[in-house]
Design a protein that fits this description.
This protein is an alpha/beta fold. The protein has 2 domains: 7-55, no CATH class; 61-292, Aldolase class I (TIM Barrel), CATH 3.20.20.70. Helix content is 32%, strand content 15%. It is globular and about 65 Å long. It binds iron/sulfur cluster (2 copies). One iron/sulfur cluster is lined by residues 351, 355, 358, 360-361, 364, 366-367, 382, 384-386, 389.
Length: 400
Amino acid sequence: MKLSKFNVFLYDYNIIFNTLTGYAIKVSDDEMSKLSKGEIPEDLKDIIEEGFSDQEFEPEKMIFEKEYLEPTLLLTYDCNFDCVYCFQKNFRKKGGVLDSVVRGFINYIRKNAEGKKVRVTYFGGEPLLEMKRIEEISKELSKELDYSFSVVTNGSLLTPSVLDRLNSLGLSHVQITLDGPREVHDKRRYFVGGKGSFDIILNNLVYAQDHTKVVLRINVDYRNVEEIKSLLLTLKEKGITKVRIDPHLVHENVFRNEYWDNLFSRDEEGEVLTKIWEFAKEEGFEIPQEVFRLGICAAHVDKDIVVDPYGYIYPCWAFTGNPLYIKGRLKEDGSVEYNGKFTSKTAREVWKGKCDNCPYLPMCMGGCRFFSVLENKGFDGIDCRKKNYEEIVKLIRYFI
Ligand code: SF4
Ligand code: SF4
């Protein structure tokens, strides 16, 4: 038996983690030393065979075997907020998704579910401005399919009654953002006109955390990094401890660059986020296993379309609104006209011949298509995140 090339050896913790199978094991000093030389201790043979032995990375097969169809619909480009770093600021538009696109989306799912579970993400702008559309689509799809959905929302409109309504329609979870304690958050994420949003979101969170799963997104840059601890302590004080913390670095977008000076470099990502996770864990918040997830995303999966309110299809959420990165158009009958650009196949294959022996390949797949574009390497370039993964995998120690 040969050891997998996707085993990561964390010598400081005597842990071996396999980035493809997600298996992690704690071993003795002696076992660690043997395994690092490729020798397999007799009493570990079974577990090594199951989770740490030689396997091929076959994204096509994984995508084919996926249990879910996971399309995304942007219900509007409009928003009741005016966040400092919003990448959609330049193409904010009143009004919601077109009728023909709603019909196209429902028809698309009917045609493509093929017995799979359907998990829709509603995105925006602020998707809860278009609550009626969530009702309309959910009622239709839940009649005939195993349907659930999530909403990426700023949280301001997620009152208890709206949440109850969403639950009755098939809500699986929500993503809400808080960027710091009140004085920090309110300088970054405010309503159109400038009014702070912290108190309203916090109130909604108190109810939400008991009635659905909440992913709490925290957008981090130089301006708020020192305040994240204070945010977590405030949440604890208010009894909001059931949310799953999800910190991300604020990143630049092809549309905007005036916020550039406040951003961490991409090389700092692993270190910054790991510190936040560690503090969150110490304070009793959960680290979601998704931190170690496989790198397959919407850009890699043809069927997981990301559709905007006008029916344009993009490789993933980060490209939405940019006419240069449209990959197709959804028609009312649920068929899609692709233009041959930014294909999932291209996204799935960028790593071939470049990253074949990298232990982080299953998590990374050659990096993020959006960042590759942002760094002028094109849609099929490599966006190497090795340094970040080397930090993030250390968090596996909390799961053993
Ligand atoms: S809530 Fe989201 S869509 Fe609205 S302004 Fe903020 S970042 Fe942009
Ligand atoms: S881009 Fe870098 S980290 Fe990602 S798979 Fe390739 S070599 Fe590994």
